[in-house]
Amino acid sequence: MWLDGRSDCILEKGGSILSFSDMLVNKVKSRNQSLLMTFFLGILIFIDDYLNAIAISSSMKKITDGYQVSREKLAYLVDSTAAPICILVPISTWAIFFSSLLEANEVAEPGQGIAAYIQAIPYMAYGWVTLGIVFLVAIGKMPDLGAMKKAEERARNGQVKPDGAVDIDFGSDIKAHSNPTMGLINFLLPMVVLVGASWYFGIDLLAGVFVAIIFTICFYGFQKLVTMNELFDAVYDGIKVMLLPLATVIGGFMLKSVNDSLGLTQYVIETVSLIYLLSTSLL
Prior knowledge:
Mean pLDDT: 79
Oligomer: single chain
Helix content: over 70%
Number of helices: 13
Distance between the termini: 49 Å
Number of domains: 1
């Protein structure tokens, strides 16, 4: 996860994300188009939800800010696209992880976990329904409610970020590449390398990101886009970006370990099964 953040910050330092944003600015002509672009880009980066969220939010916030889209809505679009698409595409890190669980719990035969996962995709209601709702929000057919409505009203009055929100400063001196085409290549090529390397190593995102970082460092170094000092600054910024999500994941694993030690999972399963049996017998 830290490598995800580092990779994104290196792209940011090299001006590639800014170049990509500038290219999108010329393509996006309305508020709804900015929301739709966020949605469709989220679908394209399906290999990992964390990588999806980091890359899309970094590249789209400049555009959505320009059309007075609240950061809350941008966060909703990014997050609610990233997780479902990773669930529904069977070559994502989530699919590989879940297929291994199916095999470990003897739900699927050894080596058949991914096949069982693919068979279950049509029934994954959360992913399909959530993507449908996000699409309706993006095209303006789903009204804003509650806190989101207030956030959008605030954004239309010129304040896209909520009170107290602070962007991590990657450096105000970052500039887009002087050659727009090369700037776009500098953004897309590391992404292609990341996806390709992850696929090559069996959907191993850790290996994929590591290869992509090495490639990006060499690629940017050849063009003299970043100095070594800027590179280490990017690595440090990447750690800061991912510190809170990493802490959340660690906390989740700790909670799981405690629950397993207490036998809570088995207790819940047995209790629910008992309630179901009693209900069916009474009927």
